[in-house]
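Students often ask why inverse folding is considered easier than folding. One informal answer: many sequences map to the same fold, so there is more than one right answer. In these notes we will look at a single instance of the problem. The structure comes first.
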């Protein structure tokens, strides 16, 4: 391969270093949230905090995802995508440190800062994938999504042991700032290498390169007037709705049906783990096709089978139902893939990602509350699961239209 071709390939594809940076960023986008649960009781006791405080602490991420997610496209236009992602990692690291330095209000404030950083990166990393890996959108989206899930599992599994080894819940929560700083360092190096490659390529060809990852084309019409953008947004929001409910309420559903508490915890862990191979494989296959609708509906049918099982006979085969639901939740990787594929330009990808994740996570925040409310009102799980099944069928419908080959 000629030197110019090698440089152009590095500029367009982003290179191995940028791929590593994307994975490291993705690993950071869940531990700040999943690390709280294992030490929440210890933190409450140490701080003398109330149950209301704990409820606010666990609600903050969804609200920050919505608010900061909508602001991400504006930040990307003004500062550039590369700088915006670096800023997101810096904000995340700062929030992780700040939240262990004081009392209950400081913990809430630090968590808000940390999840704001996560929200920015949530929106912008799919833009980086679209821009830097245009021929490998499916592969990189799958890798990114799998890294998200691995990071979430690590946050749940490692925080308490780290805290025990280094002095308590504050050390356990603060330890994730090390991973954020590492991701920031690699990201800055990768971005610098990529900018150099693009500059050399532009000099060799004598052409001005517009797709630098730091420059955005002029803003076009608002996506709020695009029916397809709203279809993608509702699809994203409903799949997040189901995921929030299942991760939050599945342990209680299983325990209430007679499954031992320890086993229920393992099953919830399996819910996330089973999605990793799905996230690695399905986006690659789906992105090769003109339409992703069949894959979206197929995963929905698998999840539907698991939810029906949990509704009718949860104790009969809890592992099977959990695995089926977990496979169905793998549609999250397709939701991210669709965001990249339904936009022609990098600017539109950023705006669609911000809209889908901003409004989508706001919609998803209603799910756990409504599920719990229906359980309290009916004193059972049948009606809440009937609601979930209706949401899943609606998600499949919107997903079918979101997966069709059109552009916002």
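Output (designed amino acids):
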């Amino acid at each position: 391969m000629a030197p110019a071709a090698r440089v152009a390939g590095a500029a367009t594809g982003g290179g191995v270093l940028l791929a590593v940076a994307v994975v490291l960023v993705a690993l950071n986008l869940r531990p700040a949230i999943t690390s709280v649960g294992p030490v929440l009781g210890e933190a409450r006791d140490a701080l003398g905090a109330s149950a209301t405080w704990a409820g606010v602490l666990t609600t903050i991420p969804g609200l920050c995802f919505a608010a900061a997610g909508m602001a991400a496209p504006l930040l990307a236009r003004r500062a550039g995508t590369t700088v915006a992602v670096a800023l997101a990692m810096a904000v995340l690291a700062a929030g992780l440190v700040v939240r262990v330095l004081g009392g209950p209000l400081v913990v809430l404030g630090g968590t808000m800062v940390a999840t704001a950083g996560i929200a920015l990166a949530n929106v912008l990393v799919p833009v980086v994938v679209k821009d830097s890996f245009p021929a490998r959108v499916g592969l990189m989206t799958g890798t990114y999504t799998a890294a998200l899930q691995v990071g979430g599992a690590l946050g749940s599994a490692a925080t308490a042991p780290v805290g025990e080894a280094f002095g308590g819940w504050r050390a356990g929560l603060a330890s994730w700032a090390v991973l954020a700083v590492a991701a920031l360092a690699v990201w800055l190096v990768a971005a610098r290498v990529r900018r150099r490659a693009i500059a050399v390529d532009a000099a060799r060809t004598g052409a001005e390169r517009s797709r630098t990852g730091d420059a955005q084309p002029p803003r076009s019409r608002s996506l709020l007037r695009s029916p397809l953008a709203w279809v993608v947004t509702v699809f994203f929001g409903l799949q997040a709705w189901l995921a929030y409910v299942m991760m939050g309420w599945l342990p209680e559903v299983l325990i209430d049906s007679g499954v031992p508490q320890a086993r229920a915890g393992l099953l919830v862990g399996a819910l996330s783990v089973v999605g990793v191979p799905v996230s690695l494989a399905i986006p690659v296959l789906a992105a090769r096709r003109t339409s992703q609708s069949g894959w979206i509906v197929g995963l929905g049918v698998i999840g539907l089978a698991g939810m029906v099982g949990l509704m009718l006979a949860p104790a009969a085969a809890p592992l099977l139902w959990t695995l089926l639901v977990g496979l169905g939740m793998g549609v999250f990787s397709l939701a991210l893939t669709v965001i990249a594929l339904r936009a022609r330009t990098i600017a539109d990808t950023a705006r669609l990602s911000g809209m889908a994740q901003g409004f989508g996570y706001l919609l998803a925040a209603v799910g756990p509350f409504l599920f719990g409310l229906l359980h309290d009102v009916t004193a059972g799980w049948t009606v809440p699961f009937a609601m979930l099944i209706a949401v899943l069928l609606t998600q499949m419908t919107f997903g079918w239209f979101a997966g069709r080959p059109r552009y916002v």
